[in-house]
Amino acid sequence: MPASLAARLSAILAGAHSRTFRRLHLTAALVAVGAALAVVLGTGSTSLAQEQTTTAAAAAAPACFGAAARDQLHPCNNSSLRLQVNPTPDDAVVEPNSPCIPVSLKLQPFVCSFGTVKSATVKPTATIALIGDSHAAHWRAALAPVALVRGWAGLSLTRSSCPFSATTPALEEAETTRECVTWNKQVPAWFKRHKEVSVVFTSEHIQARVQARKGTGQFEAKVAGYMKKWKALPDTVKTIVVIKDTPRATGNTGACVSEALKNKKRAGSACAVPYHYAVQKDPAVEAVRRLNSPRYQAVDLTSFFCSSRYCQPVIGGALVYKDPGHITRVYGETLAPYLYRAITALAPFAAPAR
Description:
Layout: H1 3-15, H2 26-41, H3 48-60, H4 89-93, E1 101-104, E2 111-115, E3 126-132, H5 134-137, H6 140-150, E4 152-158, H7 174-193, E5 197-203, H8 218-231, E6 239-243, H9 253-262, H10 267-270, E7 273-274, H11 275-278, H12 283-291, E8 296-299, E9 310-311, E10 314-315, E11 318-319, H13 329-334, H14 336-344
Parallel strand pairs: 3-4, 3-5, 5-6, 6-8
Antiparallel strand pairs: 1-2, 2-4, 7-9, 10-11
Helix pairs in contact: 1-2, 1-3, 2-3, 2-6, 6-14, 8-12
């Protein structure tokens, strides 16, 4: 991706979180952002009104907002963002996930749609799916704009506290455990009925515990569970992409950021979390390595969260964490250009978008 293009993509996405633009209807904002991205990359047409709306938002966005501040290929610094935190920790707690339109409320598993919408004049270039637990769901904020750019129709099949795995989760409530096991059986069956889905994106909570056999550690049990479940997907799923789980914060991180904001301190550095605590080896990424097949790919955006020593909860004026384990929608959307760049670098996606 050319430097100028990456910068413009960052500006457009950051614009969705300027104080003015955030007052607009959330769904309309996402559509406008996607339309502008399509224009930037020459991937489709859009209306003049949509272009003007998004151009105004991009113009209002501060430079280097969010993940752009950690783009190592194109360093960016904006000193005016040093004391900014958007959203505040209190706002982040009630911040909704990235928009997703329910496909059916009656059928199981629950499925909702995002990305490119098929119409009389628009035909998606491919259909993708995002599956996994809530740590997959929070990546939809970054993946939805990518889907718009690539012309992909997106379908989301996620369930909180329930990774897509053949290994049974170790949850406190037996009923919740049974529901997760049932969901994991429903998902492969759903894919067999929906042969149009050719690409699956997945991510999972590294810290989630599973029911491991005696003599088998948590990490190995998880690796085996992912490998077995991915292999259960039909051959119509040509590529499975693991997005490495995000670094974690602590239970005190939100309060620390609020205190720093109150005292006009730089929250990112004041509340930084040590790298060795925040970042851990991801069993799903290890499963990709062991499978050693072009069908299985992995992307790692850890560098947009952490230096070699610390992971900051505020980056480029954007609050990174909604809670200790989930990223904010705001920060997720600023990651979209870099998720796009990482995906495009993978062999199955090397061809230019339409």
